[in-house]
Amino acid sequence: xxxxxxxxxxxxxxxxxxxxxxxxxxxxxxxxxxxxxxxxxxxxxxxxxxxxxxxxxxxxxxxxxxxxxxxxxxxxxxxxxxxxxxxxxxxxxxxxxxxxxxxxxxxxxxxxxxxxxxxxxxxxxxxxxxxxxxxxxxxxxxxxxxxxxxxxxxxxxxxxxxxxxxxxxxxxxxxxxxxxxxxxxxxxxxxxxxxxxxxxxxxxxxxxxxxxxxxxxxxxxxxxxxxxxxxxxxxxxxxxxxxxxxxxxxxxxxxxxxxxxxxxxxxxxxxxxxxxxxxxxxxxxxxxxxxxxxxxxxxxxxxxxxxxxxxxxxxxxxxxxxxxxxxxxxxxxxxxxxxxxxxxxxxxxxxxxxxxxxxxxxxxxxxxxxxxxxxxxxxxxxxxxxxxxxx
Length: 391
What we know:
It is a single chain. Helix content is 51%, strand content 12%. By secondary structure, it is of the alpha/beta class. The protein has two domains: 28-266 and 314-389, Metal-dependent hydrolases (TIM Barrel, Alpha-Beta Barrel), CATH 3.20.20.140; 268-312, no CATH class. The strands form two sheets. Strands 1, 2, 3, 4, 5 and 6 form a six-stranded parallel β-sheet that branches. β7, α10 (242-251) and β8 (254-257) form a beta-alpha-beta unit. The longest helix has 26 residues, at 2-27. The N and C termini lie far apart (61 Å). Mean pLDDT is 94; it is low at 8-14.
């Protein structure tokens, strides 16, 4: 009889634990600070108001995953320069506005904490805008103001490419000896101060170390890293070193952990290189179809899912980044910045926005309290947004 009771009791405990995790997750305000779906739908023409079988985001799965607020990334590559980048950024914002107009009962644009909390009460997804790459302001403060008026709540100072006023992580590592300057120029510091003045958060994901420290010395408001991980676990130039994390915490800022396999797992890059080499012909064909290398890579991984799954890191490694940062600098300084729809691979089990509850469940297993989880899922973002916008 005892042999029968033990498995039954274990099952009851596990079910109760799962129910507790789901209840905590659904009660929390969940905010993701980085998603690239807008760049993709300009090419694919998908209606993300409806359930999709490809990609990581749509409004249906967002509801399933308990997502309350999404910062949509506005992005274009370095091939967009002066005369085209700002216009392209506005085109992507137009696509978000169009989505909101089609589904006003499901999603609404918000600019501050008051509007975000109102959207949550109305059970609508709160949509916020983050612009990923300072080249999209084309060195013009009036363009910065223009994007802010349309709803931009953070500007990532650089993408992989540097601007004339800020150097990127890629360039500081690969082109350091040939760069005309390192870090922020005087104009770059002026831009940061102006962002402080108009309530736009300064995002240091993608920037070089010199730029990072110049930002910390210049900004009077808490800064964010919208989608970065811990360098100590995966020494990728896009991740933040311990010293950077500590300085960010002193600033009052938050690092929002990126889900991309390459930033989570230090062994992923050589594995994916071999995978892409093996399927080079198909990748070249997909690139011709989509005219976008990143989207082609995403589609290739979907085509060969069983094969690509073998090189994805475990979910536990993503949780390790969150746990490491929380223990190093405090639970008040870590959040979620998935980078969904902006990369070809994420940890096993994190296939879409419907999978966020798994993070809550894993954090509970590690002993995080409901209060801690509330901060990680959204409370820390709310604090830093209010500190920048004033409301």
